[in-house]
Design a protein that fits this description.
The chain is an alpha/beta fold and 984 residues long. The chain is 43% helix and 16% strand. The protein is built from 40 helices and 31 strands. Strands 23, 24, 25, 26, 27, 28, 29, 30 and 31 form a 9-stranded mixed beta sheet that branches. Strands 12-11-10-13-14-15-16 form a 7-stranded parallel beta sheet, with helices on both faces. Helix 19 links the parallel strand 18 and strand 19. The chain is globular and about 105 Å long.
Length: 984
């Protein structure tokens, strides 16, 4: 650097030229006018036929040298000149461009400041053919954004760009196979070796007129640019390539108005405008100019706070708040945008680089607005504070999901079925599609990584620490007055959720009480919701619930308590342990999940299901000499192991990884396992088997489970040799046969195909592709035809877009067109072998009600055969019996549609005169159906579980169709514990 400050750099300029005589003199004059003391200027002419040679001869004294000979294009001519350059800085200046006064002085300043840069580039102006200024090239400050350049946005003005010859020698000269993009290709190669440097000043003028290479390239130019972007980005189409293509297309339409309808031109312009808006996520404006430089300390981060509610969300609020506060302080040059619901934000994070944006209360509207705001702000990465079923329309690979634990998978019984299903769906999106996952402890991290839904390769630790609000000592009078009725007390700060284990704590307290000093109490804080049920049977104990209390009172409770009692059944971290450590307070806690990892040797731990062991720890901490002092000393050391700085750095590093993530990793094509149950279907089974074996997707195993057929079925199976796997033995029905086959199946994708149904060509290929594109999807079903015994199409199976209420209305999933992943099969369990006709429908309902994500694709995948022996036709009465049972079991109610079907069957199908009666009085079966359905409605009102099922289903319909009403319902439920208890 000192050497550069003392020297004036030697500057070498190359000017390629071919028949540019009318502009050449301006170009040569602009170089000479720099009055640079150490310069060389070469002109490489392609044997011009105009007055170029005369001009060169008149300027010979100004030039280092010139040649006039045929070349292979502009890149070849420039390379000839660059090979002769000996300067400290090298560049080329086309004959129709020119330098602005003082350009070399500004260049030399940049060189002295950063002599090792790959290249130096600045701003300039656009001029017309006559040299009149049209506009500034870049209306913003000049910054370098590598990602935007890779994406095909060549915002670097070539005549204002100067190269480091040392770096140029490493990467090589211009690619002469390129005609329009050789400069852009060179900038990218140079930037791989060293960082470029910017010069925020106008250095040159670029002449824009119809005969330039850029103006005359047309679609050949746009295709070369697209291929170049694909080469460096790995994507077949990028924002920049699409912009250049649309620019060329709209120009063609504008110049040929009669060739295209005005609506087509308007649509093309609208698409171009949309792409320009979309590319702002790259950190550029609508013209493709970088708004900001790409770098480690210049991230724009969107933070989704929709899921969080102080108090109700538990420990995740202080955890996320603590990490964000520290990250905002550590990275002041980053921008953090907090998106929250209307009203007060759930977090308090202050900083000049923080802004809060209140959005719509309804989740769908919230994330639609968040998407627009993120795109407008050029957000690089997004932090999702907790998994949700709704999402912003932003790339999932750029989203980080905060997941404290997977408690719902370990204790599903603690959740109502609808809540568990919703949570599983939300987590499935986060685990399978999220770019990264932040969690709190090694225990939580291992459970996340080992979860079958987890496909993210970026699961990192982001531990909690002591909340700032509890760092200061509480005031002397901060202890709540009610607590002072006790001489001593144990303290449990937690909402009354089942996994917090309050009732076992109360039981343990009762057992310990005779061995504790008089006037010992148990103090609880947190939400009082559920206290009436939790305290039932323990009303006689000295237990005090304070509800939510201010931070200074919490601190006083930790300071004055005998011990923190925290016998939780499952914790992702356990922040109260750190809060207790802050005041040297002994901790009595569980020996399960993350608590041993956080507490270490500074706690007394036991089995949280053993009330006697819990009671013994309470007794020991009061009576055992030296125990409190020993734990207090260890608590100080344990607390020191946790701080907010390290997790803030980890989160920021993850944000940088997500911001630069472009491609989703490819995965190995999965094995597809097809189970085919059969019995005495010799006349159909060959067509069914062939429909599997002839698929275009070949990574398939077919397992045929024959129920000891007495026709030619076994001979047909033998004829396939080792192409299929088969077993012929007695079974207990179709579901039993399917279950046996599924036990043998090894595939990641599963399905069963009855031996009278068939797959359509390419069905499996389409299914595998769909699962690859939608990793969150657990089951996908397509469309299908009905065929007769001869294979003739007789109709179309009525499918529909999936929703739970639509599946409850009727079975919109066509069984032979349905495929599911092994992970959901392992969670759902086997088919119900007690069912004879509706085992598939029950399985779909079980998957959906347990939280499986089901998608419908419009692709036609299969054909379902209807014939006299088919159960669908032969056992109508049994079908209704089973459907009513399983709908009540998994949905809590039976759709009116099924009541109509049942009574139509009873009155119009099951006896000889029914058809004639239906002709005389059409629709008469609707009256008994309505009466029957009304009885169900009366029963539903008396059954809490069924009421919750129906309420959830009804709300999902309202939520999709009436956002204002569903928003009002959400608010009412949030503030009413009675509604939450009644409707789940």
């Amino acid at each position: 650097m000192m050497l550069a400050n003392r020297l004036t750099p030697k500057i070498s300029i190359v000017t390629p030229s071919l028949n540019q005589g009318r502009f050449l003199q301006d170009c040569l004059d602009s170089v000479a006018a720099q009055n640079w003391p150490d310069i060389e200027h070469f002109v490489i002419d392609g044997r011009s036929s105009d007055d170029t040679l005369d001009i060169l001869e008149r300027n010979r004294s100004r030039l280092t040298d010139y040649v006039s000979e045929p070349d292979k294009g502009a890149a070849d001519a420039i390379n000839k000149g660059l090979a002769r350059c000996t300067g400290d800085i090298v560049a080329w200046l086309n004959a129709d461009d020119f330098y602005l006064p003082g350009a070399f002085e500004k260049l030399a300043e940049a060189w002295r400041e950063n002599p090792d840069a790959a290249f130096w580039f600045g701003n300039g102006v656009r001029v017309d053919e006559a040299g009149k200024i049209k506009s500034t090239f870049n209306a913003r400050n000049v910054v370098y954004n590598h990602r935007a350049l890779v994406e095909g946005l060549d915002y670097i003005l070539q005549p204002s760009t100067f190269m480091n010859p040392n770096v140029l020698r490493k990467v090589g000269l211009l690619n002469t196979d390129l005609r329009w993009s050789f400069d852009w290709d060179l900038w990218l190669r140079l930037a791989k070796e060293a960082s470029p440097a910017t010069i925020d000043a106008q250095l040159s003028a670029t002449r824009e007129w119809e005969a330039t290479l850029t103006a005359s390239g047309g679609f050949r130019r746009t295709e070369e640019l697209r291929l170049m972007a694909e080469r460096y980005s790995g994507k077949p189409m990028t924002h920049g390539a699409l912009c250049y293509w649309l620019d060329t297309m709209t120009g063609l339409m504008r110049n040929n108005p009669g060739a295209f309808h005005n609506k087509t031109f308007k649509a093309a312009r609208q698409l171009w405008s949309a792409v320009q808006s979309d590319m702002q996520r790259l950190g550029v404006d609508a013209s493709g100019m970088p708004i900001r430089a790409e770098g480690a300390f210049d991230l724009v981060v969107g933070i989704d706070l929709y899921p969080l509610t102080p108090g109700a969300s538990g420990g995740i609020v202080p955890w996320v708040q603590g990490v964000l506060r520290e990250m905002v302080r550590l990275y002041p040059s980053d921008r953090f945008i907090m998106f929250h619901r209307p009203g007060k934000a759930p977090l308090k994070v202050a900083g000049d680089n923080v802004e809060y944006v209140a959005l719509n209360e309804h989740p769908q509207r919230f994330y639609e607005e968040m998407t627009r705001r993120c795109e407008d702000a050029g957000v690089d990465a997004v932090i999702r504070s907790y998994p949700q079923e709704n999402h912003p329309d932003l790339p999932f690979e750029q989203q980080i999901f905060v997941i404290p634990d997977l408690q719902h998978e370990f204790f599903p019984e603690f959740f109502t079925s609808p809540v568990l299903a919703a949570r599983r769906r939300a987590f499935a999106y986060a685990l399978s599609k999220g770019g990264a996952i932040a969690t709190m402890t090694e225990h939580s991290r291992s459970t996340v990584i080992n979860n079958p839904w987890t496909l993210s390769q970026d699961v990192f630790l982001m531990p909690a620490a002591l909340p700032e609000e509890l760092r200061d000592d509480p005031a002397g009078g901060a202890l709540p007055e009610k607590v002072k009725t006790f001489d001593r007390f144990f303290y449990m700060p937690a909402n009354l959720w089942p996994h917090k284990n309050h009732r076992r704590l109360f039981d343990a307290f009762r057992r310990a009480l005779p061995h504790l000093p008089a006037k010992t109490g148990l103090v609880l804080t947190g939400s009082p919701e559920g206290l009436e049920d939790a305290i039932k049977g323990y009303e006689d104990l000295p237990i005090l619930h304070l509800g939510f209390v201010p931070h200074d009172q919490v601190a006083a409770l930790f300071r004055d308590t005998v011990a923190l009692v925290y016998f939780s059944l499952f914790e992702g971290f356990g922040i109260p342990l750190l809060e207790a450590f802050r005041y040297g307070t002994p901790v009595l806690c569980s020996n399960v999940a993350s608590l041993p990892e956080v507490g270490g040797d500074a706690v007394l731990a036991c089995d949280p299901t053993d009330a006697d062991a819990m009671a013994d720890l309470m007794r020991r901490i009061v009576s055992e000499p030296g125990l409190r002092e020993d734990l207090s000393a260890k608590a100080v050391e344990r607390l020191a192991a946790y701080n907010w700085t390290n997790p803030a750095h980890e989160l920021h590093a993850a944000l940088k990884r997500r911001a630069s993530s472009i491609n989703t990793p490819t995965r190995k094509p999965p094995l597809v396992s097809i189970v085919m149950p059969t019995r005495n279907h010799a006349h159909f089974i060959r067509d069914s088997i062939d429909s599997v074996l002839n698929q275009s997707y070949q990574n398939v195993e077919l397992i045929v489970m024959d129920g000891a057929s007495t026709d030619e079925t076994v001979d047909i199976l033998k004829s396939y040799g080792d192409k299929i796997r088969w077993i012929s033995e007695r079974d207990n029905g179709q579901a039993d046969a399917i279950n046996k086959g599924m036990v043998l199946a090894k595939g990641e994708v599963l399905a069963y195909l009855n031996s009278d149904d068939v797959f359509l060509p390419r069905a499996l290929e389409r299914v595998v592709k769909y699962f690859a594109e939608y990793p969150e999807c657990d089951l996908v079903y397509g469309n299908a035809d009905y065929i007769d015994k001869d294979g003739n199409i007789t109709g179309v199976y009525t499918t529909a877009e999936f929703s739970f209420d639509r599946l409850m209305h009727d079975c919109c999933i066509c069984q032979p067109a349905a495929f599911w992943r092994r992970r959901i099969a392992e969670r759902t369990g086997p088919f119900n072998a007690e069912l004879q006709t509706a085992m598939d429908y029950e399985y779909w309902l079980r998957i959906a009600s347990s939280g499986g994500i089901i998608h419908h694709t419009a692709e036609k995948l299969a054909q379902s055969r209807l014939h006299e022996d088919a159960k669908t036709l032969a056992m109508r009465g049994k079908i209704f019996e089973e459907v009513f049972k399983i709908c009540q079991q998994h949905g809590g109610y039976v759709s009116f549609n099924y009541y109509q079907g049942l009574w139509h069957y009873r009155l119009c199908e099951s006896w000889a005169g029914g058809t004639k009666l239906a002709q005389i009085v059409p629709g008469f079966y609707g009256l008994p159906a309505l009466a029957h359905f009304s009885v169900q409605l009366w029963r539903l009102g008396r059954n809490r579980q069924s009421r919750q099922y129906v309420a959830r289903t009804a709300f999902s319909i309202v939520d999709r169709r009436a956002h204002l009403l569903s928003t009002a319902i959400r608010k009412a439920r949030r503030y009413s514990s009675r509604l939450r208890r009644s409707f789940g």
